[in-house]
Structure formats: C-alpha cells, structure tokens
Amino acid sequence: MKILAVGDSYMPPHYFRRAFSGLHAEHDVQYIQVDPAAHFTPTSPSELRIKEYQGTPGELRRHMAGVQVLVVQGAPVTDAVLDASTELRLVGCARGGPVNVDVEAVSARGVTLVTTPGKNAEAVADQTLAFLIMLARGFPRAQRFLDEGHQLRDNWEGARFIGSDLRGQTLGLVGYGHVGQRVAHRARAFGMIVLAYDPYVNVDPGDGVEQVRTFRELLDRSDVVSVHARATSENIDLFNASAFDIMRQGAYFVNTARETLVDEDALDEALKSGRLAGAALDVVRPTAETGRHRLLRHPNVVMTPHIGGATHQTLLQGAEMLADEISRFLAGDPLLHIVNQEVSTP
Q: Quick check: is 312 catalytic?
C-alpha cells in the first residue's frame, strides 16, 4: 500500500517517520513537508471550506499518484487533492478537528477520514495546573516586580507576595472531556475539591469529582473556574458579563480551550473591578492592534500564545494514533476515530 505522510513547520515529517517505522517493511511510505512560504488564493467551494492550513493543494497533488492513504497535520486537503489519486481510501488528520480538510469532499468520494482527538490532552492539562499554581501564588505580579528592576532586600519584604496553596480550594471545570478529566486527576493530587459541569458527559463517581447540574451552580461554588469545552456556535461568549458577575468575588479564571468562549471586554472589566483576582489565558481573540495585549496591563494576568499542546510528546502521539488507525485499516479492524461515520470502511 502507498502511504503519503505530509508534514509542516509545526509538525515536521520526522514525527510521522518515527511513528510509522513499523509500516516500512511492507508498505511504500513517502514523506514530504509543505513549504510554509507557499500560499494560494482560495477560489473553489472546496478551498473555501478549509482553514488553518499550511502549504498549497498543488504541492500535495504532485505526490498523490497511486496514494491509498494520505496523512496530514496542517496541509490543505481539497477536492483537487483527493481527485489526484483514484486509489485513495483513507485520510488521516493529526488534529482533533480536521479544519484543514474538506470533510464534505472526502465523504462524497467514499473515503474514510480519521483524526486524533485528545492527542494534546496531557500537555494541556499540565499547562492548566501550571496556570493554577501561578495564579494562586501570585507569580505574574512577582515576575513583573523583577522585570521592572526591583529586588527584595530581605525576607520581610516578601510578605507582599504571599499567595495561597491549591489544597482545599474548589476548582470548577467547564467541560469534562479528554482534558477536563486529566485536569481533575492532577488537581485532586494537589488536594483540590473538583466540580464539573458538562451536559454531554456523565461523570464517573469513582473520579472523585462532583458533577453539578447547572453552569450557574459551578460558577457560584468555585474558587477557580477552568474552561475545557469545545467551541460551538451556541457557546460563543459563554463567559460574558453575567457569568463573571456570578463568580465568587476574588475567584480566578483559566482558559486553555478556545478564545470564542470568552467575551474579553467582560473579562477586562471583571479584572479591572477586582471581581476576579486573576486570569490565565492560552488563547485570546486576534486583533488588529499591535504591541502588548490589553489584558496584560493587569498585574494578575498571565498569557501564553496558544501553546497548550505544543510539546514533542503531543506531536508524536498524534502520529502514533494515526499509525494505529492505519494498522487497523489494513487489518480490516474497526477504526477508533472516524469523522464521517456515514462512509463505510472497507
């Protein structure tokens, strides 16, 4: 079987090469990397349906002859790419959401599409706990103190930076999927009380997590609220002025999920008024403004540039998950993470 693995600047081919080593003996596995500087202007309906991609469809088409399995992370998969191989049977995308793949075109051609949900869960959970510690201990303010050229003269001056332990505090999780469950496990190890609100999940009583019935109850009872929900058209600005008003005075807010879940004007006001004691954000909405993000003017805010899943282990795990799916596909076994379930798998 001919397999084409397409890397990009975020996930170079060596991750696929390492994960696919077991396929080399019996199959023709080829590796390419798209040119991050190559761009195209989307014009066709298929091209307009994809986003967050790197490279061009033309780059992939040149390598598609005879390909039966196509694997990508961020390369654009359009109808033109799919039609470049009459033998294509499986497309794998090493992401949780295949936004760079025209799912409609894949399904119309009877090709199975698989993804790698949860591949970054461990990494995002780690970052969430790091954020919780940083907020509770007041690290953003302490770091700025040093950045501004100050230094402590003696131990007594350190009183200005006294923070709190995580133990005994109540953590409210909005979303209890791959990431939320791992955050709960870590938080309980720190002695936190964990609540979860997720109308689509039944929390296992053995997890030691209390499932609350309403979003309002979670906000009202939590010392820290951490967001781990999927972004949908229904939950845009889920955290708005009303939500922040319900939260406890002096609570903390953490978002390692998606920027569309938060009304940043409302968050800014909640920080300005002192309603919130601090916030940690891995995602924010893009703006036309240049320079420092406005929320960083608050001394109790920590922000990172969407790096929750940016670890070597995450990338390798995504490649390994696809290698496992390919092996299942070749053996005729059921696939684990099919996106277009309506397409029957040979």
A: no
Residue bearing tokens 């302490």: 142
- Annotation marks residue 89 as catalytic: no
Q: Please give the model's pTM, rounded to 2 decimal places.
A: 0.92
- pLDDT tens digits for 183-203? 999 999 999 999 999 999 999
Question: Could you please report the per-residue DSSP string of 211-265?
Answer: EPS-HHHHHHH-SEEEE-PPP-SSSTT-B-HHHHHHSPTTEEEEE-S-GGGB-HH
Q: Which of 26, 148, 234, 289 is catalytic?
A: 289
Q: Does 289 qualify as catalytic in the annotation?
A: yes
CATH number of 2-119+311-331: 3.40.50.720
Whether 121-303 and 2-119+311-331 are alike in CATH topology: the answer is yes
Q: What is the pLDDT of residues 9-68, one digit of tens each?
A: 999 999 999 999 999 999 999 999 999 999 999 999 999 999 999 999 999 999 999 999
CATH number of 121-303: 3.40.50.720
Catalytic residue among 178, 228, 258, 337: 258
